[in-house]
Amino acid sequence: MPAYLANDGDAERSDGRSTSPNSYHGSRPRSARGRKEVGMIGQASWISSVINLVNTIVGAGILAMPLALSRMGILLGTIIILWAGLTAGFGLYLQTKCARYLDRGAASFFALSQITYPNAAVIFDAAIAIKCFGVGVSYLIIIGDLMPGVVRGFNEDAGGVGFLVDRHFWVTAFMLIVIPLSFLRRLDSLKYTSVVALISIGYLVILVVAHFIKGDTKQDRGDIRVVQPPSAVAVFSSFPVIVFAYTCHQNMFSILNEIGNNSHFRTTAVVFASIGAAGFLYVLVAITGYLSFGNAVGGNVVAMYPPSISSTIGKAAIVILVMFSYPLQVHPCRASVDAVLKWRPRRSADSANSSPSRSGLLQPPAKPSTKPKGDGMGETRFAAITTAIIVLSYIVAMTVSSLEKVLAYVGSTGSTSISFILPGLFYYKISSPESPHHQKLMKEDDDEDDGSGSEDEGLLGGSILKGGPWRRKLLRRLSLALAIYGFIVMITCLITNTLFVVAPH
User: What residue stretches are annotated with the Amino acid transporter transmembrane domain (predicted)?
Assistant: First the structure.
């Protein structure tokens, strides 16, 4: 499996437009008047948002963490895992800040690009679409590769039945399961499948930890590196695996659009809980898996355990995990394809005459709608784009057995762009004191402060949430630093993928 799959379960993003000109704008709950105008937008619970984001982050790539540790040493590897989580979490946090400049329910990379870098919007969305499509195809390939072994594990005589060990049969069979899920409009609708996927992740984690505690792999264990990595080449070869393991940013705007209470406190808590849970699981599996096999560990730690019912169930858990992660790839891919198809070059005069208000950014419909929001696409367009993505991914998965090199390059560019570069550049541009969008937001915040605050504001203090000038200036500098860091990571990963073999996972 390609190392790039460490970012896994990516899911939906939304380009939906607010149905009300005065809809729920900011990241904090508004007055009662504002809440009445929310309509169908914002129905997801906090826990549902966390579940979907964790499932977006944690996927089959968790099984590659022990190998990454073997190439870095326990100390350096653990530090890099935590650092990657910190930088990814900061990118998610910047997305929550950027969403405040847009209408409630309308946050997306496309919408932000329209008021920051309008003529580059098509590039951003094309990168996201290609990346998500590639990962979705890889999930189908994983299913085709693993299911014959799972069947043999449960029944040794299954090899005599030809189609049961045919990867093409299993890809086709599982497509019948994922197709209905791929046609769901809202990310929140996938929360139950995300729970099943998280249960699969939990089983895999328990399996790795249980074998470590049992100590039944010590006889085949290699040497252990605690501090000294074998070489700089080894470190850089596994660095992309860890960086991509936290990629989930294409889903963050959908979560912000759908969460019922989108206060600063709640959205920040979603980021902390999701990144924290993922980081904990990565470190736990990395250390226990590495200590089980030492430097003899492979790219998929579960595949190294002796044949048994528990290890066969572990392989089945991987299949379930990627199966329910596939729709989470279709969702952002569909929204990005839709944005690319709608994109038209924008003249500078159009940008100059555009309204600085959030409600004026995207022209609202003349009449409020009570239909559930999610992507702003008509039924026919929605069905056509979704069908095209599913059919093309099925054809590629049936005809290609390995996409490692392609996905490695797509991951190096697409994942780093949406994780670091775009959140950093967008926030740096839109939060400029000279930006009319920023001035409008500050005025609205001042007006809010004159009224009654929300429960979360009372808990944290409105001044803390809003931040003083020095905090905003520091945040802008850090956002620019994150974008620069993203470019460095991209170059590093591209060089690594060009010169070295990407670690499987």
Answer: 43-443
Query: For the chain, what percent of residues have pLDDT higher than 90?
Result: 20
In our burial notation (b when 16+ CB lie closer than 10 A, e otherwise), range 435-457 reads bebbebbeebeeebeeeebbebb
Strand partners, 318: none
Beta-bridged to residue 44, according to DSSP, are 259
Average model confidence (pLDDT) across the chain: 77
Distance CA 8, CA 326 (A): 9
Pick the closest to residue 247 from 135, 80, 123 (CA basis).
Answer: 135
Task: Give the residue-averaged pLDDT of 205-228.
Answer: 84
Give the confidence band of 272 by pLDDT, cuts at 50, 70, 90.
very high
Residue 44 is classified by DSSP as B
> For residue 259, what are the β-bridge partners?
44
Burial (0-12, 13-18, 19+ Cβ within 10 Å), 46: middle
In three state form, how does the secondary structure of 326-392 look? HHHHHHHHHHHHHHHHHCCCCCHHHHHHCCCCHHHHCCCCCCCCCCCCCCCCCHHHHHHHHHHHHHH
Q: For the chain, what percentages of helix, strand and coil (3-state, to nearest 5) are there?
A: 75, 0, 25
Q: Which residue has the higher pLDDT, 187 or 132?
A: 132
Query: Can you give the pLDDT at residue 449?
Result: 46
CA distance 409 to 412: 5
User: How far is the CA of 311 from the CAs of 207, 219, 285, 302, 315, in angstroms?
Assistant: 8, 18, 15, 7, 6
Cα dist. 339→41, 200, 248, 388, 470 in Å? 20, 33, 19, 15, 36
Residues with Cβ within 8 Å of residue 446, at least 6 apart in sequence:
none
CB contact at 8 A, 109 and 422: yes
SS3 58: coil
Joined tokens for residue 102: 């847009």
Question: 219 to each of 216, 301, 305, how far by Cα in Å?
Answer: 7, 16, 12
Whether pLDDT at 24 is above 50: no
Residue for token pair 């990168």 = 127
pLDDT at 7 over 50: no
- Condensed to tens digits (0 to 9), the pLDDT of residues 382-424 reads 999 999 999 999 998 888 766 666 666 777 778 888 899 999 9
**Would you state the structure tokens that stand for residue 21, as one six-digit string?**
């000109």
